[in-house]
């Protein structure tokens, strides 16, 4: 499969999916931390659509705004300007109670730190969001997920009795159990060895291909990004490139061109400081 590249670093005004089946979108998204001289503009006006039933990766240099974009999309952080819509609902107009409900019932999260409850078994951790929301556990779906992540024999173990890869698979199963509209994953393989990463990424991709899940994943790893249907590249809080059907090589090529632009900008800054 060949990659389709759209890249004009720093010149792409918007990256919006042509498909009508959009699970999450942002328009004119701006996020500024702090005020006055110390203000940092983490997102500088982003228009983006995430397609339903796809695995989308977000990449970019450190500090480019990846985590901020994901947190704003998931209602974990407030936005300075712009709109975020998840599965047809305007996140910006929600009060705290509605936001909490959205996160509990419509969103799934997988973080680099697995965030499992140490006193609960793997099975209890997986069903925890459903238990908190007082929703029934669909046993058929639960069994399918547990089988898919290969945890059937580990269900009664506590996190401390599981390897890092197994713990992350529990976190993955937990995110999937409630059948969320979309799963947001922030560096989900960041703490995993290569074999566990491969297993987790293959599972995430299967959850999309076989279960119809929609997943948005922030990653630094070109190998992880190659599991996605589409990769979006951020630089300085803007979307600057897009890749469909990515390969590790095509991802690396774009990352290289972005860091070349960064290096040139730094050199210009240094020259003007030195002048
Ligand atoms: N709570 C905060 N207060 C102030 N500035 C912040 C805060 N969170 C993020 N930033 C700044 O916003 C910018 C974007 O940060 P963000 O964490 O989104 O980048 P990132 O691409 O996810 O980086 P990394 O790859 O290093 O995790 C950075 O300049 C960062 O220092």
Automatic annotation (TrEMBL):
Key words, A-Z: ATP-binding, Nucleotide-binding, Transport
Entries under SUPFAM superfamilies matching the protein: P-loop containing nucleoside triphosphate hydrolases
Keyword hit for ATP-binding: yes
Family matches, as CDD domains: ABC_MJ0796_LolCDE_FtsE (cd03255)
Pfam family, one: ABC_tran
Domain ABC transporter: 24-261
GO molecular function, one term: transmembrane transporter activity
InterPro entries associated with the record: AAA+_ATPase (IPR003593), ABC_transporter-like_ATP-bd (IPR003439), ABC_transpr_LolD-like (IPR015854), MacB-like_ATP-bd (IPR017911), P-loop_NTPase (IPR027417)
CC per GO annotation: membrane protein complex; plasma membrane
Protein name: ABC transporter ATP-binding protein
Taxonomic source organism: Pengzhenrongella frigida
Lineage of producing organism: Bacteria, Bacillati, Actinomycetota, Actinomycetes, Micrococcales
């Amino acid at each position: 499969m060949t990659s389709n590249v759209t890249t004009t670093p720093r010149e792409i005004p918007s990256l919006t999916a042509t498909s009508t089946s959009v699970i999450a979108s942002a328009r004119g998204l701006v996020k500024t931390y702090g005020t006055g001289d110390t203000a940092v503009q983490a997102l500088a006006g982003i228009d983006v659509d995430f397609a339903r039933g796809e695995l989308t990766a977000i990449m970019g240099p450190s500090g480019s705004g990846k985590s901020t974009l994901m947190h704003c999309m998931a209602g974990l952080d407030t936005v300075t300007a712009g709109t975020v819509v998840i599965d047809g609902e305007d996140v910006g107009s929600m009060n705290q109670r509605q936001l909490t409900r959205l996160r509990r019932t419509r969103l799934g999260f997988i973080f680099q730190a697995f965030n499992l409850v140490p006193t609960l078994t793997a099975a209890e951790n997986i069903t925890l969001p459903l238990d908190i929301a007082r929703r029934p556990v669909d046993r058929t779906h639960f069994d399918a997920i547990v089988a898919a992540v290969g945890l059937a024999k580990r269900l009664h173990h506590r996190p401390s009795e599981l390897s890092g890869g197994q713990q992350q698979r529990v976190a993955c199963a937990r995110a999937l159990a409630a059948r969320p509209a979309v799963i947001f994953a922030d560096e989900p393989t960041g703490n995993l060895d290569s074999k566990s990463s491969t297993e987790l990424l293959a599972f995430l991709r299967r959850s999309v291909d076989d279960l119809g899940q929609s997943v948005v994943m922030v990653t630094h790893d070109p190998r992880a990004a190659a599991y996605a249907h589409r990769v979006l590249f951020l630089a300085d809080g803007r979307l600057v490139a897009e890749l469909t059907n990515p390969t590790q090589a095509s991802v690396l090529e774009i990352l290289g061109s972005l860091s070349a632009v960064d290096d040139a900008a730094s050199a210009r800054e240094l020259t003007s400081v030195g002048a």
